[in-house]
């Protein structure tokens, strides 16, 4: 066994880190304050090929392995969780089109998703439906050569600007997947502001009022929308969030190394106080452990091993809960400064809380991961 | 996993063994409806699709995503057989 990045993966990590340090870190607090990510930044992500990471080269994408994709999520998450969340939902949509789309879907959407000409997003949650995804209330019925959709989708990441949504609705009592374009008749969005964390992720509520889409925009058969398409997209999303949580943890760690080295109390840098060192020890240990679980999940994805599904749950559970604890400790170590907008740890703290809720809440994970112990 | 010299019985045996990891102490018959038995949730369905793809070296595609293709061991064997044998 050899746990080490390949030369190519290490090189990619260095490039991702340089991009994030130059293009994102200096502006991340501004994105948070203004609750938006400028289009120019998204275009830069596209130019770097970051929006086509999960798409093979022959289909116009970057063709990255899943470990490299994970590293990109860590680095973007280290800089700005809102931008990482764009990569998450966009990659979920692109992956679904790649994996489950017809030739027509691929020709209409895939190259434009890869180039960033259009932004993809994921639309499952509703005002009354979160973890219990099979109970979505949005409906779709076939009328002639079109599906007519009615309902509301809520908390859609980048719903304010996304052009196409991987959306789930009931058809004859079966959850089914669709590609819904922003310009569809009867489709509108309402921005959601004032969210606790990932404030730049441009959330929206989607409103489907007799929204008409071509019947060809259905993905997969009736009733397999959630079981195969939704779950595989959520697996990519969960993997992305797990790595993004590692990014938050790493950002906290780096901020605390800097702060505790320069902040002096009782005549010495605070890093020389034993209880501070205890917190730093836990911080670095849990960050590394979370990263290792993510590597494991990524390695299994690259080898097509079905165990990656539950290993990704485990990685996301550990990484998101660790990030929350680490971010809380980071604020604590910064004292009053940590509660101020002058330091980014308050943003990390707010963003980390979101990681415990999205792509399966901590409690849903605790229910499912325990079951895994009784299987293999 | 190589598909050389793969037989329908092999496909059924491997599929039954995989499902058996999740649902212990149940002797699943080839024609038993796993949906009707209440076995299937979305996480299991995804793992089942991944298993079939890796184990038999095939791609499960959009047009294959029909519940009837995954309803029984016989149906899954037919799906695989149609792609590799």
From TrEMBL, chain A:
Could you tell me which residue ranges the Acyl-CoA dehydrogenase/oxidase C-terminal domain spans? Answer: 228-371
List the InterPro entries hit by this protein, alphabetically: Acyl-CoA_Oxase/DH_mid-dom, Acyl-CoA_Oxase/DH_mid-dom_sf, AcylCo_DH-like_C, AcylCo_DH/oxidase_C, AcylCoA_DH/ox_N, AcylCoA_DH/ox_N_sf, AcylCoA_DH/oxidase_NM_dom_sf
Acyl-CoA oxidase/dehydrogenase middle domain residues are: 121-211
Residues annotated as domain Acyl-CoA dehydrogenase/oxidase N-terminal? 6-117
Task: Tell me one GO molecular function of this protein.
Answer: acyl-CoA dehydrogenase activity
Superkingdom per UniProt: Bacteria
UniProt keyword terms in alphabetical order: FAD, Flavoprotein, Oxidoreductase
**Pfam assignment, any one:** Acyl-CoA_dh_1
Cofactor(s), by name: FAD
Q: Which family does it belong to?
A: Belongs to the acyl-CoA dehydrogenase family.
Protein's name in the database = Acyl-CoA dehydrogenase domain protein
Tell me what organism the protein belongs to: Herpetosiphon aurantiacus (strain ATCC 23779 / DSM 785 / 114-95)
UniProtKB/TrEMBL annotation, chain B:
Indicate the segments forming the Carrier domain, all copies.
Answer: 5-84
Q: Which Pfam families match?
A: PP-binding
UniProt cross-references to InterPro entries, sorted A to Z: ACP-like_sf, PP-bd_ACP
Family annotation (Gene3D superfamilies): ACP-like
Q: Which domain of life is it from?
A: Bacteria
Name of the protein: Carrier domain-containing protein
Organism of origin is: Herpetosiphon aurantiacus (strain ATCC 23779 / DSM 785 / 114-95)
Give the lineage.
Answer: Bacteria, Bacillati, Chloroflexota, Chloroflexia, Herpetosiphonales
């Amino acid at each position: 066994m050899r746990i080490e990045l390949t030369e190519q993966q290490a090189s990619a990590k260095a490039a991702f880190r340089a991009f994030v340090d130059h293009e994102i870190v200096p502006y991340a607090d501004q994105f948070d304050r203004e609750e938006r990510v400028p289009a120019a930044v998204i275009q830069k992500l596209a130019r770097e090929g970051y929006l086509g990471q999960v798409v093979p080269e022959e289909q116009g994408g970057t063709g990255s392995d899943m470990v490299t994709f994970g590293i990109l999520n860590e680095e973007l998450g280290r800089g700005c969780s809102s931008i990482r969340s764009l990569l998450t939902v966009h990659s979920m949509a692109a992956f679904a089109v790649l994996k489950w789309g017809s030739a027509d879907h691929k020709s209409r959407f895939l190259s434009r998703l890869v180039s960033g000409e259009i932004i993809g997003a994921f639309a499952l949650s509703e005002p009354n439906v979160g973890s219990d995804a099979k109970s979505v209330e949005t409906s779709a019925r076939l009328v002639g050569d079109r599906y007519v959709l009615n309902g509301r989708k809520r908390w859609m990441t980048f719903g304010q600007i996304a052009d196409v949504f991987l959306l789930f609705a009931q058809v004859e009592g079966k959850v089914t997947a669709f590609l819904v374009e922003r310009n569809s008749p009867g489709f509108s969005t309402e921005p959601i502001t004032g969210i606790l964390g990932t404030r730049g992720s441009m959330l929206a509520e989607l409103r489907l009022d007799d929204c008409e889409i071509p019947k060809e925009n259905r993905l997969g058969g009736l009733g397999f929308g959630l079981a195969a398409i939704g779950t595989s997209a959520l697996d990519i999303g969960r993997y992305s969030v797990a790595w993004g949580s590692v990014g938050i943890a790493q950002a906290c760690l780096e901020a605390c190394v800097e702060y505790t080295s320069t902040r002096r109390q009782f005549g010495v840098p605070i890093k020389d106080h034993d209880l501070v060192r205890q917190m730093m020890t836990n911080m670095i240990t849990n960050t590394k452990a979370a990263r290792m679980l993510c590597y494991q999940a990524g390695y299994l994805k690259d080898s097509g091993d079905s165990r990656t599904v539950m290993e990704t749950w485990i990685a996301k559970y550990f990484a998101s809960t660790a990030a929350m604890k680490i971010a809380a400790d980071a604020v604590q170590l910064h004292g009053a400064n940590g509660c101020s907008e002058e330091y980014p740890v308050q943003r990390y703290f707010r963003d980390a809380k979101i990681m415990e809720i999205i792509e399966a809440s901590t409690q849903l994970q605790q229910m499912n991961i325990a079951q895994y112990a009784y299987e293999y | 996993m190589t598909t050389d010299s793969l037989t329908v019985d092999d496909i059924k045996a491997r599929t039954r063994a995989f499902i058996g990891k999740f649902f212990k102490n149940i002797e699943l018959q080839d024609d038993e409806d796993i949906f009707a038995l209440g076995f299937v949730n979305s996480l299991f369905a995804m793992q089942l699709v991944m298993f079939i793809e890796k184990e038999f070296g095939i791609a499960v595609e959009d047009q294959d995503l029909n519940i009837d293709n995954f309803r029984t061991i016989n149906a899954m064997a037919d799906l695989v057989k149609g792609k590799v044998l």
